[in-house]
Amino acid sequence: MHIKTENFGVTAKGGRACLYTVENRNGLRAVVTDYGAILKELHVPCQDGVTRDVVLGCDTLAEYEAGGFFGATVGRHANRIAGAAFTLDGVEYRLADNDGGANLHTDFKIGFHKQLWDAEPVGNGVRFSRLSPDGEAGFPGNLQISVAYTLDDNNALHILYEGVSDRKTLINLTNHSFFNLAGHDAGSVLGEKLTLFCDRFLEITPGRLPTGRVLPVDGTPMDFRGGKTVGAEIDADDPQLHYARGYDHCYVTGAKPGALKRIALAEDPVSGLRMEVWTDLPGVQFYTANFLPVQRGKGGAFCGPRCALCLETEAFPDSIHRPDFPQCVFDPGETYRAETVYRFFT
């Protein structure tokens, strides 16, 4: 595979960003950038002969600097932490209060998605790495972290995270791509069919924090085990859906560290495209972009609420305050490793 490198511009702080394009022999093409270790484009050949870019994003570096989480690598901790604080070994660490008294996705201004990463080719992809210094965004420890995007010839995008800290800390990364399998400019995603191979989900509060209860999906609008359109029950009279204006819930994958498991299948009736999601992480946040503001995306296309779906593989939200949840606390020198695969076919 050939990796094409091109200039993406200069950040407000004077750093030079680049774009890296990787393509497999089937025409699957990913464009990633060292700014935020972001997946900017993902072009997938479809059965009608059209190649569609299936992730939402921006055209310019300045838009990514000013904007949210399109395609972002989120860290040091994805999702929510109650009270915007946590305690390790008797020491309290304060985080950005950016979500009504909670911390969401670490920090909107200095999180991993707002940093320049070092880049290196890894044969069939690109690995981004950086040192997150002790105290960055409130987290302890000097964390050496990397994320690698690679393509295989089975039309799969692999995302591999690896890291190690010199102090006990939290590590919980995810990729926050917004998918629309009819194309990034196709509008509503409510007609796409989704299957989640998950029989439990985390109940949430009105602030979208976990209550601590892990509930069965049986008999609820949260049940996607048999496959149904995203819009089939999104407006059902259910408190869980009211709290999130739709779906914004962590499902229990049942996956084990180091062993990839198929957890989801999305299908679009327009393009005929299907996407499998595989991971070795315990949770997947299914989000229907309910709070995405109406804005211009790539090519001037408008996007907004419910125009995409996110399947963010991760540790459980607020696990640091829930000892019965799988934990994302890592000791000094302990290796963090996680993998997620998005595979496309028709």
Give the total of beta strands. Answer: 29
The chain-level mean pLDDT equals 97
Tell me the distance between the termini.
Answer: 23 Å
Outline type: globular
Q: What kind of sheet is the major sheet?
A: 9 strands, antiparallel
Instruction: List the uncertain runs.
Output: none
Q: Provide the structure class.
A: mainly beta
Number of helices: 2
Strand order of the largest sheet: 11-12-13-14-29-23-22-17-20
**Assembly state here?**
single chain
Instruction: Tell me the fraction of residues in β-strands, as a range.
Output: 35-45%
Proportion in helices: under 10%
In words, what does this structure look like?
The chain has 346 residues and is mostly beta strands. The protein contains two helices and 29 strands. It has helices at residues 61-66, 239-244; strands spanning 3-10, 16-23, 29-33, 38-45, 51-53, 72-74, 80-81, 85-88, 91-94, 103-104, 118-121, 125-132, 143-151, 156-165, 169-170, 174-176, 193-196, 200-204, 210-216, 228-229, 248-252, 261-267, 274-279, 283-287, 295-296, 302-303, 310-314, 329-330, 336-345. The strands form nine sheets. It has a nine-stranded antiparallel beta sheet with strand order 11-12-13-14-29-23-22-17-20, with no helix packed on it. A five-stranded antiparallel beta sheet has the order 1-2-3-4-5, with no helix packed on it. It has a three-stranded antiparallel beta sheet with strand order 21-24-27, with no helix packed on it. The longest helix has 6 residues, at 61-66. The relative contact order is 0.16.
